[in-house]
Design brief:
Helix content is 48%, strand content 12%. The protein is α+β, with helices and mostly antiparallel strands and 66 residues long.
Length: 66
């Protein structure tokens, strides 16, 4: 599935992550707190803090850094 927005095509990707949910939730809380700290308007990001946390953790898992 793809979505076109502002001239860009977004591609959805499903990932399975072998990390405890509480780790993802903890990281998502840190990301949300950072967004509040820097004044990011609510809803202005493409990903929610939880989905961003999953993306970050998947990125690290694929590279073997965790």
């Amino acid at each position: 599935m793809s979505i076109t927005t502002r001239g860009f095509t977004l591609v959805a990707h499903v990932a399975t992550l072998d990390v405890p949910r509480h780790v993802v939730e903890y990281l998502s809380r840190l990301l949300a707190a950072h967004r509040r700290h820097i004044g990011t308007p609510r809803g202005s990001r493409a990903l929610s803090p939880f989905r961003q946390a999953v993306l970050i953790l998947c990125w690290f898992r694929e590279r073997g850094w965790l």
